[in-house]
Specification:
With 450 residues, this protein is an alpha/beta fold. The protein is built from 19 helices and 14 strands. Bound molecules: adenosine-5'-diphosphate and magnesium ion (MG).
Length: 450
């Protein structure tokens, strides 16, 4: 459906026009009348399907310019990370180019006094992370009494990151009479609990999964015997500069990201940067900007930082290690193939990680084609300590503390196992071990013998 066919105002249509957007995505088309109707809504659609505009458009369509000098927010949008707050504010800037709407984003790690001033001066739409929102209401400067529309975006991620307490604190102080709008890539029990406790007979808008998660993304996998061989493979691929133009490399832990960075920085000097939650807020914003602008060709990042990040033209997403939560894989690959673009995803799978791969494939109902390791990639004999201890391999991966992008959910493994994934058989079952790509393994071991 064309945006012109939706009941939008000229300023919004013109702003969309400037962005070059003509057609609404399915979630945008279907969510529009529901949000307009004022009913509570739960929207579920894969990452990269345009959920942000699915709520921004009807909200901007119905918001009225307030004549008050210091308006209190009428619309409150909560996002799980600072980066997403910043990104949403940028989207609002573009969409409200021809409108008279006041909005602001607030988040932790930045000066709260400046943010207090902004809030005090008056805004129509407030965007925040859960933590800063609780802090800000605590100061008394921010009052939520006028909130009519409450949007929880990327709520699965918010709960996975352990923001449940902050979320309920906010929900409890919001005015009773309000519209609740929720968007999520996946549903699980924690999300359901929020809906049951705080939503009023919501309308569900769901965009069904296709056979493959995101058809514009070409997925492949390499089976790589160990960590150091992964380093060799990564370097090999990154040297193909004409093809690997903008590469996001995911690593599960901050320390591992730093370690990988130290291993490739010399060879790719001035081309690679690393991003995780130990970096300062300023650093994070700048690193993302530089990556978006193409100043850095390669960005190493942990899941928590890169979730939801919308950098266009990422040519490749590399999963340097395999996420043990299949959703994280889906989120990772969703960083490429944004909007109308196509993209490639490459997963490096070690022996230990094959079980995770099976979970992922089961969730997507799709088998990721495996590629043979390129001839020129040297198979390293060097092993990490965790790779040496054969008896304890699976455990050595599971018991890792501090894998990013997981937060409290880590302690809730049982709950997590119960979660349901609409449209996909996301439930975990005990796995049989399955030999993968035997032929390639054989070929390599023959080669080595020569
Ligand atoms: P999601 O939240 O579902 O992961 P986003 O809302 O971040 O997805 O949108 C993904 C990308 O698609 C963004 O770059 C956004 O600007 C772009 N986009 C959104 N809606 C449209 C549209 N109707 N036409 C073209 N591009 C769009
Ligand atoms: Mg989103």
């Amino acid at each position: 459906m064309l945006f012109e066919e939706l009941n939008l105002t000229t300023p919004i249509i013109n702003a969309l026009d400037d962005l070059g957007y003509k057609e609404a995505t399915p979630i945008q088309e279907q969510a529009f009348p529901v949000v307009m109707s004022g009913r509570d809504m739960v929207g579920v659609a894969q990452t990269g399907t345009g959920k942000t505009f699915a709520y921004l458009l009807p909200i901007l369509r119905s918001i009225k310019f307030s004549k008050e000098k210091h308006p209190r927010p009428k619309v409150l949008i909560v996002q799980p990370t600072r980066e997403l707050v910043i990104q949403l504010v940028e989207e609002l800037e573009k969409l409200t180019k021809y409108m008279n709407i006041r909005f602001a984003g607030i988040y932790g790690g930045a000066n709260i006094n400046k943010q207090k001033d902004v809030v005090y001066n008056g805004i129509d739409i407030l965007v925040s992370t859960p933590g800063r929102l609780v802090d800000m209401t605590g100061t008394g400067v921010l009052r939520l009494v006028d909130v009519q529309k409450f949007v929880l975006d990327e709520v699965d991620e918010m709960l996975n990151s352990g923001f449940k307490a902050q979320l309920t604190t906010i929900l409890d102080v919001l005015p009773k009479k309000r519209q609740n709008i929720m968007f999520s890539a996946t549903l699980n029990r924690d999300v359901d609990n929020i809906i049951q406790d705080y939503f009023n007979d919501p309308i569900r808008v769901e965009i069904a999964r296709h056979g493959t998660p995101l058809e514009k993304i070409e997925q492949t996998a390499y089976h790589v015997p160990n960590y150091y061989t992964k380093v060799n493979l990564l370097k090999y691929l990154l040297h193909k500069k004409d093809e690997f133009k903008k590469v996001l490399v995911f690593v599960a832990r901050k320390k591992w990201a730093d370690r990988l960075y130290s291993m490739i920085e010399e060879e790719f000097e001035g081309e690679v940067d690393v991003l995780h939650s130990n970096k300062s807020q300023n650093y994070r914003i700048q690193a993302l900007q530089k990556f978006a602008d193409g100043d850095f060709r390669i960005l190493l990042a942990t899941d928590v930082i890169a979730r939801g990040i919308d950098v266009t033209d990422i040519t490749h997403v590399i999963s340097y290690d395999t996420p043990d939560y299949p959703e994280n894989y889906i989120h990772r690959i969703g960083r490429t193939g944004r909007a109308e673009k196509s993209g490639k995803s490459i997963a490096f799978i070690s022996k230990i990680e094959k079980e995770y791969l099976e979970d992922i494939e089961e969730m997507m109902s799709y088998t990721i084609p495996a590629l043979d390791l390129p001839e020129d990639v040297e198979i390293s004999e060097h092993l990490l300590e965790s790779e040496k201890d054969k008896t304890n391999q699976r455990n050595s991966l599971i018991n890792i503390k501090g894998r990013e992008g997981r937060g409290e959910a880590f302690h809730d493994k049982k709950d997590k196992n119960k979660k349901e994934n609409l449209g996909g058989p996301g439930r975990r079952k005990p796995k049989k071990t399955r030999p993968i790509n035997r032929a390639a393994q054989r070929k390599r071991s023959q080669k080595k013998k020569k």
